[in-house]
What does this fold into?
Amino acid sequence: MAKKWLLFKQLAIKSWIMFRRYFFNSLGGIITLYVIFLVIFLGYKGIAGLGPTDQYLSIEGILVGYILWYLALAAYQDVAYTIQNEAKQGTLEQLYMSVHGFGWVIGFQQIINAFYSLLIAGILAFFLMLTTGKWLNIDLLSLLPLLTLELICFAGVGFALGGLMLIFKRIDSYMQIVQFVLIFFVAAPPSNWLLRLMPGTLGASLIQKVMNGGEALWQLAWQDLLLTVGVALAYLLLGVAIYRICERKAMKSGTLGHY
Amino acid sequence: MADTILKVENLSKTYKVRKSAPIKAVDCISLEAYRGEILGVLGPNGAGKTTTVKMICGLIKPDSGSILINGKDNFKQRSAAMEHISAVLEGNRNIYWRLTVRENLEFFAGLKGKDPRAIKKEIDYYIDFFGLGTKKNETASKLSRGMQQKLAIAVAMVTGSELVLLDEPTLGLDVKASYDIRDLLKQIAAENGRTVLLTSHDMNVVQDTCQRVIIINSGRIIAQDKVSNLMRLFDVKAFKFVAEGRLSENLKQALTQIPHLALVEEEVDTIITLNLEEPRNFYRVVELLGSEDVSLLSINRQELNFEQVFMEILGRSENGGEKMAAL
It folds into this structure.
């Protein structure tokens, strides 16, 4: 256990060094996200006669949806791009030779990345609320478990894509498509069973209820909470299973570290 | 009996290629590496060296065979096996370019389960050992190619692994950096008691650093022995006489009667090469040259270098020759 903690610590130190050393790059990412939202926000305000009809179409709804989209994007890209970057950098095979096993390395890395994503999402949310003048309900006790489930769910998608990357290598254009599909997943109301089973859709609606509707975690339907947990774990397990299959295939074909 | 750190038995690997015949990269290879030795794995491009190294590292799954690192199976007891092995792989950076020298050493130590604080002395030692002291706070991207390679090897060393695999460690380095790496490798094996398994195309590196070599061609081991034994095996025992001026026709005729003798007239001198199959022929040549008072400028023993030995072994294997091994 002490060795696992050591690994976590080393990965956290590395991430912090990278974040600090390339702070302006990270800051540039936040500014880009802010500017994109500003364009959406101004566009929304500019459409005359469009009155907010429900929680998804209100500016608060868009604001929550945008933050969730960022988190979804970060969660799935973190896994897939971590694998891709390590392969590109020529360090993936070194990570595979870790005594802890690559599963622990990438798992811990995701926890660390999730922390940074939540931190950036928090900063972004603050500035977006400041810009729009709409202050959302930031009930951390209710939000953190839901956001964690969303991150777990999208990390599953990331593992699946990361696995495909090990085999097919150049799938960046498909990764671009996925980020637009994610908009649909976090924005679509879970109006039927199929949508409720889509990655992140039900979770996003619960987060909307907390941030936009002012509800607390215990006020949400337990069936919905249970299903959100189930869906998140199912996508994570499915993603990891796909990753493992792809990893075995890459190890058989000798293309693990190729890029 | 030598202490075995690596034991590879009947290792085979075939790559399936779509719409093409499968490629047998490694064909039933067995080898051992002993503690404290530098073992060279040689072979032409596509011989199966890198596949073998990566299978030992547990990065490519073999079709059959077993790999034991310090007695641990590298797939079935992966975590335990990985404690004893580090590698610098060819074509990879192996280190993080955005981290400094020290940060890289600390990170990879943690990856191998070593607390960087607990091994601070070792980290400092390897920084000095590899001559990286003045660059320890520089990011790896700012180092020269030779320095980066030294750092990659230092990272492999600092983890404390008994077996260090180096795939083409001097590839792309200038002469000075290549010599530095050679010296460091010899010191690593001698002082630290590590086993180094290296692949290289540079026969000078192999001849200079390796005690033993394994030569692979088309996925099979075609020779494995001590470098000195292989050199002896192909020792031609030839002598080269350089005689001043041209020889008389009578003398030339008499000399060319001697078996295994070649005579070449150059612009001013005459070169006589005698392959010493029968030692008494040496005295016969001296006697004949002496009979006409030929002035000899030099008599030199012809020696093969390891590159020629390697080519000879490869040539024999490609012509269906026998495996040359003193196993």
Summary: Residues 222-253 of chain A form the longest helix (32 residues). Chain A has a mean pLDDT of 87. Chain A has one domain: 2-253.
